[in-house]
Write a structure and sequence with these properties.
Radius of gyration: 13 Å
Helix content: over 70%
Distance between the termini: 14 Å
Number of domains: 1
Strand content: under 5%
Shape: elongated
Number of strands: 0
Structural class: mainly alpha
């Protein structure tokens, strides 16, 4: 599981960023786009932190 979780988190980050971009292009409210970008950033940070050497 320790090798799958960071890949899933990075994939989730990409999905959320793509969704935020799509929301932005469709004219969604700024709040919805900001929430999506923040969630994507958290998922990206979690995936990178999981892969960072020496954190186990």
């Amino acid at each position: 599981m320790s090798t799958v979780l960071p890949v899933l988190l990075l994939g989730l980050a990409g999905l959320l960023l793509g969704g935020a971009w799509s929301f932005h292009k469709q004219g969604a409210g700024r709040g919805a786009v900001v929430v999506m970008v923040v969630l994507a950033g958290l998922a990206l940070a979690g995936g990178v932190a999981w892969l960072w050497p020496g954190n186990r």
